[in-house]
Amino acid sequence: MRFFKSLNNKTIFGGIQVYRKNKSLKTGSFYFGIPKWIGSTIRVERPMSFHNDLALDFEKTVNEITSFIRRVLNEANASGVVIGLSGGVDSSLTAALCVRALGAERVLGVLMPTSFTPKEDIKDAYELAEMFKIKTIRVDIDGILESFLKSAGIPKDDPKMKMPLANLRARIRMMILYFYANAYNMLVAGTSDLSELLIGFFTKYGDGAADFLPIAHLYKTQVRNLAKYLGIPERIAFKPSSPQLYPGHRLLDEVPIDYDKLDPVLVGLFKYELPPEEVSRKTGVPLEIVKDIMSRYEKTMHKRELPPRITHQLSGRINSDKTVR
Asked: Which terminus of the chain has a lower count of CB atoms within 10 Å, N or C?
């Protein structure tokens, strides 16, 4: 994922394009295998603040996303979509939009809790599914994880295993979603938003794995407000981010500021490509935190790209630029 500056002074956010270090578009190259998401074109002008950039025309946004979902499903000749329901705002909004686009009968929600998943989250996931008449399947993942640890001879109480096990839980969930997608000729709908993608706050080949990403062009602030607009209960729409990949796991365990402060910083750094010092002045966020956010983007670049590879034997058809609009 990258922002590209074109000759007409516009920046194009495209999920399947590649780039050179000087940010000019690289012709004759194509990221195949990257999930589709909606691209948007935005003008690069220095604002006084970034509040207007987070405002949405709700109905226009809903129409754009639902049209995108229908087009992706039609192109794939898929029967429907599979979504992992966590009880959080991202999966809830994605489910609501898929139901609007396809009808509830073509949407399957899969709950994949652990023994430490908050009961409130499970309750919210079921209520969301009932609200939108979505069929659900529940797969508790503790047994799968325990079987792996036993087979591999890994002690689960080893402190060094905390993050590997956290990421393993996300990858187990991905495996389950793709099982049902394969079984029922469905696509996996990703639930990552733009804020998470930019800072790398997702598990590679875990929750970052999907066939298409319907809300990947929306910042978390926009996701919350759009969810409220669609009637999703406010306790879900504005629930504090808590991935729960280990007991008590919260966004603020890994990221220094919450999304209400993070999103304006992301707008300044990546939409307007302003230097960290200017972003800090405009947002009031300390410079060291702005630099930390930029560093997170750079360090997690590998999560947003295909693995490095030699491409000289690719055909011209594959080796061409492609953007989903």
From this structure: C
Q: Say if 312 falls within a structural domain.
A: no
Chain length of the chain:
325
In tens, the pLDDT along 315-325 reads 666 554 444 33
Q: Using an 8 Å Cβ cutoff, are 48 and 12 in contact?
A: no
Q: Residues 41-94: pLDDT tens digits?
A: 344 455 556 878 999 999 999 999 999 999 999 999 999 999 999 999 999 999
The answer to whether residue 309 sits within a structural domain is no
Task: Name all contacts of 289-294 with Cβ < 8 Å and 24+ positions apart.
Answer: 289/256, 289/257, 289/265, 290/265, 292/256, 293/199, 293/262, 293/265, 293/266, 293/269, 294/269
In the structure, what pLDDT confidence band is assigned to residue 159 with cuts at 50, 70 and 90?
confident
What pTM, to 2 d.p., does this model score?
A: 0.82
Distance from C-alpha of 12 to C-alpha of 316, rounded to nearest angstrom: 23
Are the CB atoms for 164 and 137 separated by under 8 Å? no
- Residue pair 56/226 in contact by the 8 Å Cβ criterion: yes
| Backbone CA torsion sign across 131, 137, 141, 142 | positive
Count of domains observed in the chain: 1
Distance CA 111, CA 125 (A): 7
